[in-house]
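[audit] Reproducing an earlier prediction to check determinism. Same input, same settings, fresh worker. If the tokens differ from the archived copy the diff job will pick it up downstream; this log only records the rerun itself.
[audit] input (267 residues):
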Amino acid sequence: MTPSTRIEEKIAGSLRAAGCEGAEFAIVLGSGLGAVCERLEGARSLPFSEVEAMPGSTVPGHAGRFLLGHLAGRRILVQEGRVHLYEGRHPREVTASIRAFAELGIENLLLTNAAGCLEPEWPVPSLMRIDDHQNLQGRAPLRRGEQGRGSPYDPSLGAALDAAAKDVGVTLRHGVYAAMLGPAYETPAEIRMLAGLGAQAVGMSTVAEASAGWALGLRVGALSCLSNHAAGIHPGALRHAEVVAAGDQVAEELAELFEALLRRFDS
């Protein structure tokens, strides 16, 4: 048994013992996007520290817990917080919980993040559906033998997100997410490079999780909270506290969007 297999099996075992099997969706929440948790009915909380082998995040705005409950009548498992490669983590640690979700039989995965916006005309904060990504982190998230061809983002789940956004009047933009290693924010020259490569948003997470989930057969959808304009687009220094505050501003919209999506699946 490989070390990476042991990690996900230990996490899955702890989640199973806590009664987390049978969830229809798993949702991973990025910085400042915890409002979804407040809408869960009958929620039970499980801190990362009580889940065997689950790596803990050191980033402000990441609560570091799982919650099991119901949203729009659907049983869902929420992961509030994540670990990042820039924290010194190995890709097997970054993707461990996603692999555990697959072990539990969860079929649908919704990923969220806070990201910098590369489109000067787009307002911030706002929400963007990730249509595809650019992995510029220099790390391979998949194991040897796992399939990783094409985009990991499921078209039917993406279309359902678009329809749900219309249901509740949420403006949902579309774009490509560029993932950088971090932890430093990008320079204006790097932002110009990314824009030239066709990216609309930039961040430091999500692509490893999306790739692993897709390789394991999960239907993957992803949303970026465009919390600020990236370096060089508008003047001013970027600060993580502002990213978290921007997440707070759009978190209610995100929660409404997810509720509408789950109602659509129910119908």
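[audit] rerun output stored. Observation attached for the diff report: Residues 203 and 237 are 16 Å apart (CA to CA).
[audit] end
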